[in-house]
Specification:
Elements lengths: L1 H25 L23 H12 L2 E5 L4 E6 L1 H10 L6 E2 L3 H7 L9 H17 L5 H19 L9 H16 L9 H18 L1 H8 L8 H27 L8 H11 L10 H32 L1 H14 L15 H14 L8 E2 L4 E3 L2 E3 L4 E5 L1 H4 L42 H18 E5 L24 E5 L1
Parallel strand pairs: 2-7
Antiparallel strand pairs: 1-2, 3-4, 4-7, 5-6, 8-9
Helix pairs in contact: 6-7, 6-16, 7-12, 8-10, 10-12, 12-14, 12-16
Amino acid sequence: MALFITLGICLSCLVLLALWNQRHAKGKLPPGPTPLPIIGNILQVDIKNISNSMNMLAKVYGPVFTVYLGMKPTVVLHGYEALKEALIDRGEEFTGKKPLSLINKINQGLGIVFSNGEMWKQTRRFSLSVLRTMGFGKKTIEDRIQEEALCLVEALKKTNGSPCDPSFLLSCVPCNVICSFIFHHRFDYNDKTFQSLIKRSHENLEVLTAPWTLVCNAFPVLHYISASHRRFFKNSNIQKQFILEEIKEHQKSLDPNNPRDFIDYFLIKMEKEKHNKQSEFTMENMITTTSDIFGAGTETTSTTMKYGLLLLMKHPEVLAKVQEEIARVIGRHRSPCMQDKNNMPYTDAVMHEIQRFINLAPIPIPRETTQDVQFRGYHIPKGTSVMTSLTSVLFDDKEFPHPEKFDPGHFLDEKGNFRKSDYFMPFSTGKRACMGEGLARMELFIIMTTVLQHFTLKPLVDPKDLDISPVHTGVGSLPRSYQLCFLPV
C-alpha cells in the first residue's frame, strides 16, 4: 500500500513539474492554449484538418502562437507578414528542419530535405551546383521534359479513350526526368522495377501526409504498432537498395573527366574528399540525397498534375479557355516550350491557381530555430519547432478574393495580363524552400499544355458531381482517386 502511495505522489509531482515547466516556457514563448500534461494540445487540434485548427487558434492568439503536440512546444506562424518576417527577413534563424521521427529512422540526419547544419549547407550547395551544371533551368532540361511529355502522349493514346486512372502515367514523366538526372537513363513505362519505384514512392507520400503520422511524431513509440509505418520503412529500404545498386554500376564505369549524372558527380566529390574525416560526402549521404531528390522530384509534380486535371474537368469553361489559348499560340504541330508561357497569360494563371487552390502542403514539415530568437517580443529558444501555415497565405482573402473558389482570375489583372503575387508560395519560401521549384514549374507547364494540346478530358460523371475535396488535409492534401477518358483532339 505504501508503495502505491509513494508512486502516486511521485506521479503527481511529475505532472505538477510538467505543468510548471510548460507555464514557465509559455511565459517566454508566444501565447497559446493551455496544454495538458504529456499530450499537450493534441485534443484541441483536429489532426484531420490541422490548417483549420491553426486558423481558429490564430483568431484567438494572433499570427504567432504556441501549441504543444505532445510535451514539446511548437511555435506557429500564421499569415503572410509573419512568414515573410521569419523565413525571408530573418531566414538564417529559421533554417533548421525539425526531424520527423518517422523520417529520422531512415535518413539519420543525412540528405537535403531533413538535414541540418553543415550537412544541409554543403549537400544543398553541391546539389544546386550539379543541377545548374547539368542544365536545370536551361534549354537542355526543357528538351528532356518535352521528349518525356511526348512519351506520355503516346501512352495516353493507347488507352483508346477508355476510362483510366491517370495516377501512374502522370508520375512517369517527372520520375523519368529526375531519373535521367540522377541515373543517366530513363525507364520504359512497362518496366516492372520502374512501376515498383513509383508505387512505393506514392505509398510513402500517403503515409507522410496522413494525420496519423503527426500523432506518431509526437509519440514515436506508436510507429511500432502502425502497419502503414512498417510499410514505409520497408519501401524506403527497398528504394535505398535500388539506389545502392545503381551506384555500384556507376563505380564500375566512372570516368572522372566525363561525369554523366548526379551519382557520378557525387562519386568524384567523394574521391576528392576521401582524406577529410569531417567530409559530408559519404556513401550513406549519397544514397539518402539521391533518395531525397528522387522522391521530391516525382511525387509533388505528379500529384499537382493529377489534381489539376480533376479541377479542369470540374470547370469545363476554364479547360475550354486553356485549350483555345494553346491552339492559338502553339497550334497542334509543335511541342509547347517555356517561351510560350509569356504569350499565354490565361494558361499561366490557371497553372498558378491550381497550385494555390490544391494547397498541396498546407502545413509543411516543421522548421527549427538554429539559435535563440527574439521574435515580435517573444523568446523562442534554439531548437524550438516552428510550424508554418501556408494555407493562411495561399487562402488570404485580401490577396485572393473568395479563396475557397477555383478562379484563375486571382492571377490576372483587369486587362487579362498575368499578375504575380508575393503570396504565391506553394513551395514555401526562404532558404528552406523547395530546391526543385524551378524544375517543377517547368514540368507542370510543359506537361499539362502538351496533354491538353492532344486530348480533351471527359469525366465519367457530370462535372458538378466531381469531388475535388482532398483525401488528407494534415501536412499534405492529396486528390481522391478518379478515372477519366483522354479523347484525342
